[in-house]
Write a structure and sequence with these properties.
Number of strands: 7
Largest sheet: 5 strands, parallel
Strand content: 15-25%
Distance between the termini: 21 Å
Number of domains: 1
CATH topology: Rossmann fold
Shape: globular
Strand order of the largest sheet: 2-1-3-6-7
CATH class: Alpha Beta
Structural class: alpha/beta
Order of helices and strands: EHEHEHEEEHEH
CATH superfamily: Flavodoxin domain
Number of helices: 5
Radius of gyration: 17 Å
């Protein structure tokens, strides 16, 4: 059994992203994993100030929900980042959450190329929804995920589910008309299966 923490960074309460997360949670739960969702709509996390007051082992000076999340981040085996596509990338709430990882960094005297410090070693995955489904729709979001979370922070990628074509955002969510909810269930159920490959 794995401890899975899902960070839901935007979207409507029962919108496309929320439904995608619910299907993933159902699959992961059916596989015996423990899953917790933290909504950044309900838990405010401000962006990093770059003040360096947190260097190293000191808490962030900002008084918001992030410091309370740190034990959950450290206890998680897998952190799933769930976001609608906003202006061709991850939501600002998700990005603010990732920026605040700065305060859980530890000093590394011999960091690998392109990294200045070390972070807790975690698995990560990405769940995203969008109205469009062009070949370039998720390009910037995937690039940020790979560079920031995998290449820089050093998380181990367990895959991405990029749920494009969920319909016009002016009306009701339309993800239920796509195969994405079934794919999210299977992704959650099989994410730690030995033969499972990243999506």
């Amino acid at each position: 059994m794995k401890n899975i923490l899902i960070i839901q960074g935007g979207g409507r309460a029962n919108g496309n992203t929320a439904q995608l997360v619910s299907s993933f949670v159902k699959g992961a739960g059916d596989a015996g994993h423990q899953v917790e969702i933290i909504s950044l709509l309900k838990n405010e996390v401000k962006g990093c100030l770059g003040c360096n007051a947190c260097r190293y082992g000191k808490p962030c000076v900002q008084k918001d929900a992030f410091n309370d999340m740190i034990p959950k981040i450290k206890a998680a085996d897998l952190i799933v980042f769930a976001s609608p596509l906003y202006f061709w990338t991850l939501s600002s709430r998700i990005k603010a959450f990732i920026e605040r990882f700065y305060c859980i960094a530890e000093e590394d005297l011999t960091p690998p190329l392109g990294r200045y410090e070390k972070y807790p070693v975690k698995d990560c995955a990405l769940l995203m929804t969008s109205a469009d489904n062009y070949f370039w729709t998720f390009e910037q979001a995937v690039s940020y995920y790979k560079f920031a979370l995998v290449n820089y922070i050093g998380f181990h990628d367990k895959g991405m589910l990029l749920a494009g074509g969920c319909g016009d955002t002016n009306g009701k969510p339309q993800i239920d008309r796509t195969p994405h909810l079934k794919s999210a269930y299977e992704f959650g159920k099989n994410i730690y299966c030995p033969d499972a490959a990243p999506v």
